[in-house]
Amino acid sequence: MASTINSAFDVLSGLTVDEMLANPAFLPEIMKQAINGEEVQRLFFRTITVNSNVIAYKEAAPAYLEDDLQNVAEYGEIPVSDPSGDEWQTVMLEKGGIGIRVSWEQRQDDNGDAVQREMISRTNTILRSEAKAGLAAIAKAPISTHQAAVAWDQAGAKPASDILDTIELIQGAEDAEGHYYEYEPSVLWIHPTTLSMLKRNDEVQKLYIGDMAHANPLFNGVADEPQLFGNIQVAKSFFVPKGEAYLSIEGVGFMGEREPRQITDFYAERGDSDLGGANMSWRSDVSHRRGYAVDNPKGIIKLTGLVTP
User: Does 276 fall in a domain?
Assistant: First the structure.
């Protein structure tokens, strides 16, 4: 992830700080490019636009009516039935925001390294915040867990079997009436170290399928990882603890937002002037009103015990 982000900011090499700020939208646009394709939680949470700060939703259910077809006598009234469904739940939107500054001294002394460090740090902070919000929503959901038979860093580990067992559990998910959800898991959220243990295992090497690009261009960074076991897209992230991973259908939950993430151009603080206002600085702000929830809890399973404590 870090190398991808750094490459997005490589365009700043050789520019003075004054040149970076000459167009107030230039640096924010570079940051948007750095984020694009790196938000792995978007594989798990589909984006929806909402018109309220409180989102009401129901957990997904197999698409069947509450009643089966009924025998109807001649001239008899055909009965009406409704789709089955669970109780309404709600999630609150929260507004997250953070700003960074470029001081008059940084601009005057051409301290480009400091400015670039601020930009990269804010980008990483946004990625961490969104990943943590997604993981928190998963932790709140009534999802199942699957314990690895043997930790993947131990002799005798069979991570391929652990993954395939988990795939079967998701495929076999059913409701109280015995209706299958017909889920097909397709994404694995995992720490890079744990992923390396998975890849180098002899059992996995026999099943390893080479590099396949992900079809969705939003996830260019994610698509650098190969697909495993035929159709499982790997989404590696340092924000997932090493001892666990999440196997899931794509879009197992949603991120409801009032509007897309807002990133302002750089502007002078506390009054516009050539010196950067009363604080002698220019700042750019990020804000985002969004909330995460999992509405397909049977479509995701948490794998545990992957690394020896």
Answer: no
Angle (CA) 62 66 69, round 5° = 110
> Whole-model pTM?
0.87
The DSSP annotation for 218-240 comes to GGTTGGGSPEETTTEEEEE-TTS
Q: Residue 131: inside a domain, yes or no?
A: no
Give the domain CATH number at 151: 3.30.2320.10
H/E run at residue 123: helix 112-140
Q: Where are the beta strands (DSSP E) in 93-226?
A: 94-103, 144-147, 187-190
- Residue 192 inside a domain? The answer is yes
How confident is the model at residue 171, as a pLDDT?
97
Question: Is residue 215 a part of any domain in this protein?
Answer: yes
pLDDT band at residue 62, thresholds of 50, 70 and 90? Answer: confident
Q: How many CA atoms does the CB half-sphere of 102 hold within 13 Å? A: 31
State the pLDDT at residue 299: 98
Q: What would the two tokens of residue 299 be?
A: 């479509």
Report the alpha-carbon distance of residue 206 to residue 147 in Å, rounded: 23
How many other CB atoms are found less than 10 A from the CB of residue 257?
17
Which secondary structure element, helix H or strand E, spans residue 256, and what is its range?
strand 253-257
pLDDT for the residue 9:
83
Task: Calculate helix-pair angle for 26-35, 112-140, nearest 10 degrees.
Answer: 40
pLDDT tens, position by position, 131-185: 999 999 999 999 999 999 999 999 999 999 999 999 999 999 999 889 999 999 9
Query: Alpha carbon 85 to chain centroid distance?
Result: 27
At 218 the pLDDT is: 38
Amino acid type, 189: W
Residue 196 domain boundaries = 143-253+296-304
pLDDT on residue 215? 38
For the chain, the domain total comes to 1
